[in-house]
Amino acid sequence: MIIKGNIDGKRVSSKTLEEQIQKAIKDGARELMVVADGQHGIGGRIWPQFGKVKITIEGTSGQRVGSMGMDSTEIVVKGSTSDDTGWLNCGTTITVLGDVANGAHNAGAQGKLYVQGGGGARCETMTKKNPRFPDLESWYFRGVGDSFAEFKAGGIAVVCGVDPRDPENILGYRPCVGMVGGTIYFRGAIKEYSKADVKLADLSEQDWAWLTTNMKPYLQAIDRMSHYEALTKDMGAWKKLIAFTPAEKAKAKGKLKMGLTEFRLNMWEKEVGKGGMFGAYLTHDRSVLPYITTGEERRWMPVWKNDQYLPPCAYACPSRIPSHKRASLIRQGRTAEALSLVLQYSPLPATVCGTVCPNLCMTDCTRGRVDEPLNIKEYGSAALNLKAPKKAKSTGQSIAIIGGGPGGLSAAWQLGLKGHSVDLYEASGKIGGKLEMCIPRERLPKKILDKELSRFAEIGVNVQVKSPVDKKKFEKIYKDHDLVVIAVGAQEGRVIPFPGHEDVVKGIDYLKEINFGKPRNVKGKKVVVIGAGNVGMDIACQAYDQGAESVIAVDVQKPAAFGKEMELASSKGTTIQYPKFTEKYDAKAKKIYFKDNTSLDADLVIISIGDKPELDFLPASVNTERGYITVNDLGQTSDVKVFAIGDATKPGLVTHAIGAGKVAADKIHTLLMNTDYVPEERRVIPYERIKTQYYEVCRFDTIKFNAKK
Fold it and tell me: How distant, in Å, are the alpha carbons of 52, 254, 263, 272, 676 from that of 257?
């Protein structure tokens, strides 16, 4: 449909032309040709309820083409445009096959402006950012005029610098004055920019990926695709201008200016009297409450409801480490405190957070919904060389901990820091539990674990290795201590009693043999692992490292393995088959048979379907159920003097054991000190209540922490 701006030599008014456009769209037209004669505002204010609309403009368009345009509108201008093209753009894609005059995309919030030529003065002024929608985009093929991007607050501008009017200054005079947000990518020479507001930087890999990806639709729209190779062959030819953050500006300024209250009291009222020049006429109470100081509610005292919820990261962490508090300390420049804070919650941050943990906190991190989650692995690794905190004054109370795995170590650490005397009994020759005996050294280097275990000597924990506990020894321990914590873990591998199970190796035993330096010979052999959880993947990796020809893991259900364990096992060649129900294993024939009438060659079969605790030493006063010790939410057993934590109570991750140790230690401390126990209220803030709009998008590829700071 064609709408003309001049009929029989008589120019149609802008108002009448817009009414004709709106009526045509309402009547069902979706593609319009407008032959303009200086009318302004063409293509703007077309509501999305009508669906997609394309408007092509020929002739001479007036000011504000596409102003207040909606996201359902596309505008193509065959020629140049006048001032304020795309003013207050709310989503329209505007392609100008020529130049744009002054003020292009001023105050725009969403949408795209594709310019085949260059821009006039004061383009990109006061552009906005709405975090609910994609960034505003403005593309200029040549260059732009003076006062570019004044008070720019959002959006991305790209200036390609192809045959510009001024090759020595493609951004014009005084660009970026007052700019507080957004990004400008440019290619070519510039003479100046507002150094008080923005900084010049090289492009990152993320910048380059965005630019090269979005360059194609732009060049296609303006019929300049032949320039794509030249514009994208050298990332170094491009630079970017980005605004200083408020924190960077505050740091550069040093001491902030005088506050309004200070000015009123010390300057204004000091000169003109209390209440200022109208003080004699003010009869109401003008005192200031340090709460709400303006508006209707300024005389009311609010109810303080801060810290009522946990952020998703802290709620997801079984070890209960408050990552949000560490991030807050880093923002304040207190990096050393941020790193050392973790030792109040876990004695093994480099081992667990930095190495073996699946980092559930990072999975739930709100920051990850903006760009990348906070890298807790880096936090953990950076804490390796931290010294133990200073322990409290001795309380004179004595606690026994049976088991030197993650749970027992956590409880010993917390109780030791609180000033209690701690005796830790470990059956093997070294503390660490499955961290020491089962986790492959490839995943957990021995030097990291040994370094962190050395901290326990710093706080005076009395470690007794090679001290297995039977009924008789438990009775003595129970008698000699104020309280007892059972943290023996699960050290007995489970088996399925199918024919031939006697020739199957338990997964926990296989891993222990390797870490103890006595691996069995699997070189050139075909290995089958029953159980495709993360431990099964560790076994598969170890078998390959020991020279196995092939490793196949089987399971009765979809594999439970995930994360780095699954990735590493797959990279080494492990395959997984499921569902597979084992019928029998014939060690002589070296075959394992399944109930679906299939079989696999198997020189060695290793079973990894979980482990169970050995609890023969327990007295009758401690109840068990299905092979595990029963406890309440705080780890207390049916015997009020005995607590139990970790895999002795239920299977879990290392981080679960760390958290259970802290909870039990906190409860024990209140019992021994005769104080009230106040449990942490664990309520997570709903994601929909989190305002990600206030998050500042990170401009760095990686952030590394220096533990020495």
Answer: 51, 9, 10, 22, 47
pLDDT of residue 269: 83
> In the chain, count of helices (H) and strands (E)?
20, 30
pLDDT reported for residue 266: 83
Helix (H, G, I), strand (E, B) or coil at 116: coil
80 closest CA partner among 96, 103, 56: 96
Domain ranges of the chain: 99-250, 312-386+687-694, 398-491+613-673, 523-611
95-124 confidence digits (pLDDT tens): 999 999 999 999 999 999 999 999 999 999
Contacts of 344 (CB under 8 A, 6+ apart): 389, 417
Mean pLDDT score across all residues of the chain: 91
What is the structure's pLDDT at 561?
Answer: 87
CA angle 546, 547, 552 (to 5 degrees): 95
Q: Are 456 and 413 in contact, with CB atoms under 8 Å apart?
A: yes
Sheet holding 550-554, edge to edge: 505-506, 604-607, 526-530, 550-554, 575-577
Q: Which helix (H) or strand (E) holds 657?
A: helix 654-673
Helix axes 563-572, 534-545, angle to 10 degrees: 30
Which of the listed CATH numbers 3.40.50.720, 1.20.120.80, 1.25.40.10, 1.10.1060.10 matches domain 312-386+687-694?
1.10.1060.10
Please give the CATH topology (third level) of the domain spanning 398-491+613-673: FAD/NAD(P)-binding domain (3.50.50)
- Helix runs in 203-278, H state only: 205-221, 228-232, 246-253, 260-263, 269-272
Q: With contact defined as beta carbons under 8 Å apart, do 315 and 364 qualify?
A: yes
d(CA 44, CA 348): 61
pLDDT-based confidence at residue 706 (cuts at 50, 70, 90)? very low
Q: What is the CA radius of gyration of the chain?
A: 35
Interatomic CA distance for residues 653 and 410, integer angstroms: 14
Closest CA to 101 of 119, 75, 76, 77: 119
The label of the residue with tokens 């059972």 reads: 486
Give yes or no for a contact between 386 and 707, defined as CB atoms under 8 angstroms apart. Answer: yes
pLDDT value at residue 32:
97
d(CA 386, CA 348): 11
CA 560 to each of CA 358, 534, 556, 575, 580: distance values in angstroms, whole numbers, following the listed order: 13, 7, 11, 14, 14
Cis status, amide bond into 559, omega within 30 of 0: no
3-state secondary structure of 480: helix
Cβ neighbours around 654 below 10 Å, total: 28
Cβ atoms within 10 Å, residue 520: 14
Describe the strand order of the beta sheet including 642-644 as a list of residue ranges.
Answer: 462-464, 421-425, 398-402, 483-486, 642-644
Domains 312-386+687-694 and 398-491+613-673 share a fold: no
474 CB-contact burial (10 Å; exposed 0-12 / middle 13-18 / buried 19+): buried
